[in-house]
Amino acid sequence: MNRQIGRSTRAWAVYAIIFVILAAFWSSSVAMAGGREWKGLVDSLPADGLWGEWVVAGRTFVADANTRFSNNREDFDVGVCVEVEYVGAEAPFVAKKIAKKRADDCGQGAPTPKQEAYGIIQQAPQRGLLGDWLIGNVAYRALPGAEFKQRYGPLVVGACAKVQYSGAEAPYRVHKLESKPLSDCGGNGTIPPVTPTPPAGQVVERYGRIDSFPESLIGDWVVAGIPYVATDATRFKQENGAFAVGVCVKLHALINTEPATLQKVETERDHKCNGDGNDDIIGRGELYGTVQSLPDGLLGEWNIAGITFLVDQSTKLEQKNGVFAVGVVVKVKFVIRSNGDFYAREIELKSHVRPNKGHAFGVIDSLPAERIGVWTIGGIDYQVTAATRLREKHGPFEVGARVRVKYVIDENGQRVATRIETTRSRGGVNNPAHLKAFGYVNQMPPEGLIGEWTINDTVYVAIPGSKFKEEKGLLGVGAYVAVEYHIVNGRNVIHELETKVPPGAGAQSQLGVIEAKQQLSAAAVTDDEVWRIGGVDYLITPATDIDEVESELEVGSTAWVNSYVETDGTIVATEVRGLTISTTIFLPTVNR
């Protein structure tokens, strides 16, 4: 009997111990379960998609392919209330589920609404449009998913912008950023005169090229074959260059007089006068420029060269030897619809274009005695290293000697010379006292074409008398240009700015032997030449990139040439590159 009682007591003791262990385990599990939940406002979230690092109410989590989400990407944002189920003993914790909750679940009441602000852009991202902005002395951050519109000019430093944003503190999250006229941000201090509003239907707005105009601007004008008269009350604007025969203008005119009376005349971008009589199409053109942003799936709004383009299923998209991405150079063929939208008919990737290169023609202002160091040529500094190829082809290197310099832009924005040679060429300038440079547009004026331009990290200034040519595409961010300038009080003042086809962007490429190099005439010694390469005659212009880094381009040398065909059939070389052929492969003959 006592033995049975002892056994029973021992059994109860064992049960009690098991119960205590299970209770402790259950209690621990409950505590762990409570520790796997966290609720709060989103401080930050991945820039692209949902996978990556999240910070919720100061605690860091990592979401991966195994994380479940209760909502789509667009439903999550900074300031949104969420609940996180997670595992892990220390940060960053692994998120098992992230669910959006009501704002009052986080004790915040209604979520922070999106707000709007206007301001002058003081700082912009160096590459593309995503990144940190300073607008009206307020810091903003644009992440993937932000919208950009550049209908009133490029989003560059100095431009007026309207920003839609959210967040509790700076940098605020950008939802939409669009350029606006400078007048929306207080204007430039010029107050236009107030003119009476004429009766509806009596004023027309037209685009056309100037046929003739009076020197004083007051008097008889002919635009697109139609006569007009300008009076003392007519307003004139020359923000896109000076008035000249053939220049595109936009005008407002009273048509109840004979001839019609001009209320306002302003110079316009060249493509605005390229309509074809179609009421739905008011202009057309093409450009070479840098992609600043593009939509997922490629259909939607693209921002290229400071312009917003619409792309749909009918747009022809070509991406050979690469893929569309922010920072690449593309060629766009477009039309302007009657509502002012730019519609892209074709976008073509130009994978051979290297926007960090350029060349220039000028005179040596200064050079170091040992030649290695900083050279000043045409008022611009170049870094000469032991790797720079120096060739005294037409006289010695000395102050006042005319040279051609090829260079690359390094990561610090410095021009590093790859080759300098003395030359007789002036680069095709209109005035012998002027200088010529070829490079890519980094920055342009926020409104119109008058103002500061940054071309290959060097600042040039366009004044009302500067000339602009857009025959080879629009002037925009990423455009390859020829800039003719002169130096006034230390400033590089633009005489003429002209777009060119970028080196490597032509439609044809060929490998061949240089058979002849011929100057067109004695009078053209400083300008164009014709080179015969592989049995084809190519026009070599000052804009052509002559690349002799690998091999000298002499008669008998092998060269790679990229080119395009002018309307008159002339084949123009954009780039000629010297090559060294080290291996010859003999292929078997095939009899047919």
Short recap of the structure:
This protein has 592 residues and is mainly β. 6% of the residues lie in helices and 48% in strands.
Description:
The protein is mainly beta and 592 residues long. Helix content is 6%, strand content 48%. It has one helix and 40 strands. The strands form six sheets. It has a six-stranded mixed beta sheet with strand order 37-36-35-39-40-38, with no helix packed on it. A five-stranded mixed beta barrel has the order 1-2-3-6-5. It has a five-stranded mixed barrel with strand order 7-8-9-12-11. A hairpin with a 2-residue loop joins strand 8 (131-135) and strand 9. It is globular. It starts with a helix and ends in a 13-residue tail after the last strand.
Overall morphology: globular
Number of strands: 40
Mean pLDDT: 84
The neighbouring-strand order within the major sheet is 37-36-35-39-40-38
Alpha carbon gyration radius: 33 Å
> Can you tell me the residue ranges where pLDDT is under 50 for at least 5 consecutive residues?
1-7, 16-34, 188-196, 522-526
- How does the major sheet shape up? 6 strands, mixed
Q: State which percent range the strand residues make up.
A: over 45%
Ends apart, CA distance between termini: 112 Å
Estimated structural class: mainly beta
Number of helices: 1
Helix content estimate = under 10%
Entry keywords:
single chain; 40 strands; mainly beta; 1 helix; disordered N terminus; about 50% strand; five-stranded mixed beta barrel; about 600 residues
